[in-house]
Design brief:
The protein is an alpha+beta fold. The protein is 20% helix and 28% strand. It is globular and about 45 Å long.
């Protein structure tokens, strides 16, 4: 199989790299449940499809049923990696069609965080911090 076709799901290579780095945060360390011997804070992932902005959306649900969602993608007008952060509960992956962003993403430039081309690791660190902070701030 040719490398260009391997792991091709429609997302850009930068976003696939962010996703690979995010595997370290698939379980939130501070959510360890000693009684059940597992992590309570687990991150879900789905595809983010918004025309030319192809990427992923990760979500984490707290014990009090709040849900943080972070969509990340390559911006349609640049090579930068952008992220949108919002709270909204859903049992399915949220999409551009059903996301209720609130005060963010009013325009294509109104993103929550942005890094330059090739900074997939930096974006994964930022997303990981957001997921961890959300869990820690919503433990009860």
């Amino acid at each position: 199989m040719k490398l260009e076709n391997y792991l091709q799901d429609g997302a850009h290579p930068q976003e696939r790299a962010v996703l690979a780095f995010l595997h370290r945060y698939s379980d939130i360390e501070s959510s360890w449940n000693d009684e059940h011997k597992r992590y309570d804070g687990q991150v879900d992932v789905g595809r983010w499809e918004n025309c030319r902005e192809q990427g992923y959306v990760v979500s984490i649900r707290s014990k009090n049923c709040k849900q943080l969602n972070i969509a990340f993608f390559e911006h349609r007008n640049s090579d930068s990696i952008c992220a949108i952060v919002w709270e909204q509960s859903s049992i399915n992956t949220l999409t551009i069609d059903n996301a209720e962003f609130g005060e963010v993403y009013k325009t294509k430039h109104d993103v929550s965080h942005e890094v330059g081309y090739g900074e997939a690791y930096e974006m994964s660190e930022w997303i990981g911090e957001q997921l961890t902070n959300f869990w820690n701030n919503n433990i009860k």
